[in-house]
Specification:
2 copies of one chain form a homodimer. With 207 residues, chain A is mainly α. The first copy, chain A, has 2 domains: 56 residues, Arc Repressor Mutant, subunit A (Orthogonal Bundle), CATH 1.10.10.60; 137 residues, Tetracycline Repressor, domain 2 (Orthogonal Bundle). In chain A, 76% of the residues lie in helices and 0% in strands. Chain A has 10 helices and no strands. The interface between A and B is large, with 54 and 54 residues. The structure holds a DNA duplex (18 and 18 nucleotides). Chains A, B: It comes from Albidovulum litorale. Chains A, B: InterPro entries: Homeodomain-like_sf, HTH-type_TetR-like_transc_reg, HTH_TetR, Tet_transcr_reg_TetR-rel_C_sf, Tscrpt_reg_YcdC_C. Chains A, B: It holds the Pfam family TetR_N.
Chain lengths: 207, 207
DNA sequence: GTCTATACTAAGATAGAC
DNA sequence: GTCTATCTTAGTATAGAC
């Protein structure tokens, strides 16, 4: 009590750093092997910490995974939230496609973590899918419907239009090894995808 | 030797049936949890057999998984193989899209097994991706390029056109629970996808 | 061919020294 | 805060009775 400050529960810098190190290592491992397929040993190995030390910072393997998922969801929905009903329709949608592809390029592990969770039947995020996600998608689907009704974009089923953006952008992160195996060396998948998706959606959205 | 026939190693009917039962149960389990996340206990439970009995029919967990993957690859490539360079371009491609979507609808577990394997870095099928798959895709990409050069379809990067077909059709199997959560009740995802993808690719392919 | 029992290893988590 | 040692359970695989 020398400094006279009552330390409620502030994380020290070293604690913050170690938590980050662990989460980063866990993201590596969970995104490749899924929850059940990952072990604390693997995470500890990647993090350069001992297994008991991991469990000093987090109460359980489950807790590390839960933390990653909840951090993920916000990041994941941000680009869609940014779709502005007052903006120019085609520009707004093309911007969304670009932001989503950038997420795949810059955060492929997060994309694969999410894909793993969905493949496994979304046991830990079903609630968020049916609540938060559905609400946001329904809202933006209405925007798309209005734009179509006004003849500003083609008349397409809005939910499936959104699915197509997810599918096409996330494919480059989730199936990265396949994309690279098929393209062979000397390609920049994301640069090529950017140009291709630009073309695809411009043609698709034209009324 | 009473019957005088040297029994090389023909599988009896009951053996065939049990092998099938095991493979079917394993497909259930592996497609949801990936290889590492799945256990023989789970597979035995679903198959209605004892764990040692599983290992009477297959030498190891690894062997069951390997068998599933090798059965899968052929089925998976068949629709692309069927794309006929002599056919009418748009019809051929639309048929491919439809066949691929039907695979997702009728064999979602196979699609998820494949997705799991790729997400994990394709440790067991990388060779097939770089060999068989790449060769087939390169061949069909040439066909697409020829069609584009002849002005019979739009000029698009052929590999990415094929990726887009994979991404859009497999999404409905791999992300099934998300699709249903977002659409809510009262939808037929595959019927809607069929109509949407028909529209999408017709617009995209128009020269 | 199928089961019970069991060997052996890996994995999640905790105790307690430092 | 971090480590070594350890408990406990789950998981792959095998032995051997029936």
């Amino acid at each position: 009590m020398a400094n006279g400050k009552a330390a409620e529960r502030p994380l020290t810098r070293i604690q913050q750093k170690n938590r980050q190190t662990i989460l980063d290592a866990a993201l590596d491992v969970f995104s490749q092997n899924g929850f059940r397929g990952s072990t604390l040993d693997q995470i500890a190995e990647v993090a350069g910490l001992s297994k008991p030390n991991l469990l000093y910072y987090f109460p359980s393997k489950e807790a590390i995974h839960a933390e990653l998922l909840s951090l993920l969801l916000d990041t994941w929905l941000d680009p869609l939230r940014a779709l502005d009903p007052e903006g120019e329709p085609v520009t707004e949608i093309m911007d969304y496609v670009r932001r989503k592809l950038e997420l795949s390029r810059d955060f492929p592990r997060e994309s694969r973590l999410f894909a793993n969770e969905i493949l496994q039947g979304a046991p830990r995020i079903m609630e968020a899918l049916e609540g938060e996600l559905k609400a946001l998608v329904d809202e933006k689907a209405n925007t798309l419907r209005d734009w179509a009704a006004a003849g500003r974009i083609a008349d397409l089923p809005p939910h499936h239009l959104i699915f197509s953006i997810w599918a096409l952008t996330q494919h480059y992160a989730d199936f990265d090894v396949q994309v690279r195996a098929v393209l062979g060396p000397g390609h920049d998948p994301y640069a090529e995808a950017d140009a291709f998706l630009e073309t695809l959606f411009r043609k698709l959205l034209a009324p």
